[in-house]
Amino acid sequence: MGIKNFKKQKKSIVLNDLLLNVGSHLGHLTCYWDPKLARFILNRRNKIHLFNIDKSGESLSQALRFISKLSGNVCFVNGNEKFSSISQEAAFRCLQPALTDNWTNGLLINNNLIKTNAIDALFIINGCDDSFIIKESDKLNVPVISINDTDINSHLITYPIFSNDNSLKIQHFVSNLISDVILEKSLYNFAISLKKGG
């Protein structure tokens, strides 16, 4: 195994361990599930589906790589009042826009929200709570990153992160990781601009 592959594998192991520690593998009750997600489910225990943590880690890594290559903003979306502060804090930390109020259908389509904020993608913390925003994003060709539990149909989500979506720990963990990637990208771009200016 080459040094590059070794480092990549090591990162995957660390990420998977972190996901396990926050309970990412715990899906919904087996009676509430989308059969299309069968390949992401490893097993079932006590009537609960368990995600394959390797698949969860891969999906999260893909989403983070996508975000790291974006030139515009990522809008943090959370229409659930109970969890809205998580999205607000993560967005504020990396100076990104956030949508955390209750809304009605047509919010994205009937407003210039996407254009005026130079939004390249939406990060939706819970695809089940905000399903109509996902549908509107699809009509506008705006990519969506979303935590995707075993009961959610992921066909309209560009980068689904296969994980438990009800845990505060998960929501904090994923939101902060995305915030970290955006901050790292901003610092890198700032350093490049300084170098060019110098």
Give structural notes.
With 198 residues, the protein is of the alpha/beta class. The protein has one domain: Rossmann fold (3-Layer(aba) Sandwich). Helix content is 44%, strand content 18%. It has six helices and eight strands, in the order αβββαβαβαβαββα. The chain has helices spanning 3-21, 53-68, 84-93, 113-116, 131-139, 168-197, and strands at residues 26-29, 41-45, 48-51, 73-77, 98-99, 119-124, 144-148, 159-162. The strands form two sheets. Strands 5-4-6-7-8 form a five-stranded parallel sheet, sandwiched between helices. The protein has a three-stranded antiparallel sheet with strand order 1-3-2. β4, α3 (84-93) and β5 form a beta-alpha-beta unit. α2 packs parallel to α6 and α3 (84-93) runs parallel beside α6 (168-197).
* CATH C-level: Alpha Beta
What's the CATH superfamily, by name? Glucose-6-phosphate isomerase like protein, domain 1
User: What are the secondary-structure elements, in order, as H or E?
Assistant: HEEEHEHEHEHEEH
The CATH architecture: 3-Layer(aba) Sandwich
Kindly report how far apart the N and C termini lie: 41 Å
Strand order of the largest sheet: 5-4-6-7-8
Question: Could you say what the CATH topology is called?
Answer: Rossmann fold
Number of domains: 1
Low-confidence stretches: 1-7
Helicity range: 40-55%
Average pLDDT value? 79
- Work out the number of β strands: 8
Number of helices: 6
Question: What portion of the residues fall into strands of 2 or more residues?
Answer: 15-25%
Largest sheet: 5 strands, parallel
User: Which secondary-structure class do the elements indicate?
Assistant: alpha/beta
Q: Radius of gyration, Cα only, in angstroms? A: 17 Å
Shape: globular
